[in-house]
Design a protein that fits this description.
alpha/beta, Rossmann fold, 2 domains, 5-stranded mixed beta barrel, two-stranded antiparallel sheet, about 25% helix, about 30% strand, binds 1-O-phosphono-alpha-D-ribofuranose, binds uracil
Length: about 290
């Protein structure tokens, strides 16, 4: 069935509605970042840049590094934007935009998020990197997509652990894990489960003038949870959307974060720009390994 104009929305030049991108303009290896400025910091390192497109907070550069074609795109903040970026990037490859039908031959993409995050554990140092082996979806996007299936064993265990402590999350406990691109899967980066929040303040347990509904008892219980050698390591705002949608659409994905805040010790990096530059170095090094 043809996808109606109201569902698959195209601009008059045939480009996708929000991203303003056309088929052929995006590489099969895609780096996502929150901040549009980080797009420029990454494409500065390319040997050549073939495309620069800006639409709202979505800045896209495609280029080449050591013979590998790479796209870097800014998603802005939050999984609501991940919904837009992942559907539209997937459509560029897997929907025939002229005929408005899903293609028979689907392309599998590699997504690499290079982002920033707050550590949830006191022992994870500021300015270190964290690879998300899975994401705890505290944001609310994925229930609109996930087709059911077996819940992740870690989610069942976390739910029971919270219940035993007589605390509960304000959202269902949902954990998603992707297929990681191989070089990231075999890397020696520190790993853990990343909590994806629907906001920066109360949804991450921050209280300025308004009190967060995540109680100290709940946060402390979540901090002490361990399952099969893993634990909740950090908090950010995109990874669960990236992992859930990439998996449902048949793509590989990895989220690597620079830990700029430590929420357990109340500290923040004194060198965030330098740390993000180091994260970009590491991310590109692993991308070039394949
Ligand atoms: O630095 P980025 O990639 O934007 O990532 C983190 O920083 C933003 C909040 O400051 C959120 O997007 C969060 O996920
Ligand atoms: O604490 C932090 C730091 C960066 N990004 C977040 O979402 N949270």
């Amino acid at each position: 069935m043809n996808l109606p104009e109201s569902e698959l929305i195209l601009r008059s030049n045939g480009a996708l509605y929000h991203l303003n991108l056309l088929p052929g303009q995006v590489a099969e290896t895609i780096i996502t970042v929150g901040d549009p400025e980080r797009v420029r910091a990454i494409s500065r390192r390319f040997d050549k840049v073939e495309l620069k497109v800006e639409a709202r907070e979505f800045v896209t550069h495609t280029g080449e590094l050591d013979g590998k074609r790479i796209t870097v795109i800014s998603t802005g903040i939050g999984t609501d934007n991940i919904d837009i970026v992942f559907n539209e990037l997937d459509a560029l490859f897997n929907i025939d935009l002229e005929r408005r039908i899903i293609k028979d031959q689907l392309v599998s993409l590699d997504f690499i998020r290079l982002g920033t995050s707050g550590s949830f554990q006191a022992d994870l140092p500021l300015d270190s990197f964290l690879l998300s082996e899975a994401a705890l979806a505290n944001d609310g996007l994925l229930p609109f997509y996930l087709s059911g299936g077996e819940p992740d064993e870690a989610a069942i265990n976390l739910f029971e652990y919270l219940e035993d402590g007589r605390v509960q999350l304000p959202v269902p406990v949902l954990i998603v894990r992707p297929e990681l691109p191989p070089a990231f899967a075999s890397s020696n980066l520190t790993r853990g489960i990343t909590m994806t929040a629907s906001g920066f303040y109360a949804p991450q347990g921050r209280s300025l003038r308004l009190q967060s509904g995540l109680s100290p008892e709940l946060l402390s219980r979540m901090r002490s949870w361990e399952y099969n050698g893993t634990r909740i390591t950090n908090i950010e705002m995109e990874t669960s959307g990236i992992y859930g949608l990439a998996t449902e659409l048949g793509h590989r994905a990895v989220s690597v974060s620079a830990l700029l805040a430590n929420r357990a010790s109340g500290t923040f990096s004194s060198q965030p720009t330098k740390t993000v530059e180091r994260l970009i170095d590491k991310g590109l090094e692993l991308i070039l390994q394949g």
